[in-house]
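User: Can you recover a sequence for this backbone? Please restate the input before giving your answer.

Assistant: Of course. Working from this structure:
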């Protein structure tokens, strides 16, 4: 099994570069008309996307050669900073307001969108949290509730901007990481089902959100509100098999309000046709395959959770965007990763790809077992977690009782074996002659969960609890 660092996953690296290049070219093609209408050069938006893409590629390359374990140390601090920025953007006079939403920080020429940073910070924090709590992963009070609290707090602050699309992405990514962390599925499923009516109520609270549901079910009965969806579908249908050619889209010429943003896929399909759409989806599929493969062969639990979280985030964003453009889901305002115009989104995606590539430099030749994935932090941390565990009530009751005495028995084989077995059990309970050694985190978790025999339950051995 490979233990030392090696070359990164070049298939993933070139897939990310290809998507970034396609995005810059498509932003140029989709934004020429709207840029000229606003009195700017035709390449204004493309040049900005090129600058952000160049910064992101350099950042991705640098992060690739930084050990990803460093994020384990600073994950909690990054989460706190991101929550602070999300709170800061809601303050009038500090957060920049545009199109009815307050989502950005900074001057008009250089906006920063904290929600994109919060999405990456949440993935880092949940990977750190589920790694640190691996010995008590089934605890609802100490694992599930804190993870849900951080996820809901992040999604709620983004929802208040309002930015329902990014809030949905945050919530969906959080549930993906809950699902793959090893937590019991029953409370996760119950939480998911309970959140559906809450989500529906939040949609109905705002008129513009409820109108999106009406547009989704009956778009041609509400053409005034569904003009963006109808224009996108018209462009996709007009593209045909091979498309109209580069910079020959009609829908970008006044039909789509912001063609270089969320509905850029409609412009791409109109110009490159069905074959171009298949090629673009194939590159996304390559990225997803390499991301999950990196997670499968990661050498520790933190790297595996981190790779799945980043890959899952990209899947959620790409799927929701493409489904909204093609009328499979209501319009939510989520950008297409690497393709849609947006500097913060592109840089954060490239940074996340750099973390994936950093994990790929330390993958193993053979998929590791679960116990090897748990080996990511010092044993002293596990021991400190043990000391904070609650004491088993059954152990407290047994401790108060006086040790029972063994009545004289006849010396036959069956009774002699029973007496010897009882004596061993009593010694193990009192902690005077125990030689039990727990060698894997799975056994520790099962013992805390009271699923092993009574003489191996939590608190049954004083030496083991220290």
């Amino acid at each position: 099994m490979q233990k030392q660092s090696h070359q990164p996953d070049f298939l993933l690296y070139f897939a990310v570069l290809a998507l970034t290049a396609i995005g810059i070219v498509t932003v140029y093609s989709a934004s020429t008309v709207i840029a000229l209408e606003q009195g700017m050069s035709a390449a204004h938006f493309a040049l900005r996307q090129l600058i952000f893409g160049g910064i992101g590629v350099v950042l991705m390359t640098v992060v690739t050669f930084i050990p990803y374990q460093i994020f384990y140390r600073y994950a909690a601090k990054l989460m706190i900073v991101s929550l602070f920025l999300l709170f800061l953007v809601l303050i009038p006079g500090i957060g920049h307001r545009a199109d009815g939403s307050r989502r950005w920080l900074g001057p008009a020429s250089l906006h920063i969108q904290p929600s994109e940073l919060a999405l990456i910070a949440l993935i880092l924090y949940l990977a750190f949290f589920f790694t640190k709590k691996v010995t008590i992963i089934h605890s609802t009070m100490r694992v599930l509730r804190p993870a849900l609290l951080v996820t809901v707090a992040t999604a709620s602050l983004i929802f208040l901007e309002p930015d329902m699309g990014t809030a949905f992405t945050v919530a969906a990514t959080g549930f993906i990481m809950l699902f793959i962390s090893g937590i019991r599925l029953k409370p996760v499923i119950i939480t998911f089902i309970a959140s559906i009516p809450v989500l529906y109520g939040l949609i109905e609270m705002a008129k513009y959100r409820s109108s999106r549901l009406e547009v989704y079910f009956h778009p041609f009965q509400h053409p005034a509100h569904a003009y963006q969806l109808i224009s996108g579908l018209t462009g996709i249908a007009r593209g045909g098999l091979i498309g109209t050619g580069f910079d020959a889209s009609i829908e970008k010429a006044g039909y789509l309000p912001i063609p270089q943003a969320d509905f850029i896929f409609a412009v791409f399909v109109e110009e490159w046709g069905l074959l171009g759409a298949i090629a673009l989806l194939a590159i996304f599929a390559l990225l997803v395959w390499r991301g999950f493969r990196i997670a499968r062969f990661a050498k520790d639990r933190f790297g595996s959770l981190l790779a799945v979280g980043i890959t899952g985030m990209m899947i959620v964003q790409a799927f929701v965007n493409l489904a909204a453009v093609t009328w499979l889901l209501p319009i939510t305002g989520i950008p297409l990763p690497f393709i849609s115009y947006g500097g913060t989104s592109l840089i954060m995606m490239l940074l996340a790809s750099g973390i994936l590539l950093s994990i790929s430099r330390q993958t193993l030749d053979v998929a590791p077992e679960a116990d090897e994935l748990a080996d990511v932090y010092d044993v002293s941390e596990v021991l400190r977690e043990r000391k904070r565990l609650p004491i088993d009530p059954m152990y407290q009751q047994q401790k108060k009782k006086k040790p029972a005495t063994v009545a004289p028995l006849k010396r036959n084989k069956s009774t002699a074996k029973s007496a010897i077995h009882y004596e061993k059990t009593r010694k193990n309970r009192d902690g005077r002659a125990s030689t039990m050694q727990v060698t894997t985190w799975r056994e520790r978790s099962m013992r805390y969960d009271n699923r092993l025999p009574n003489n191996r339950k939590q608190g049954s051995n004083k030496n083991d609890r220290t």
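That completes the design. The beta strands are 96-98, 101-104.
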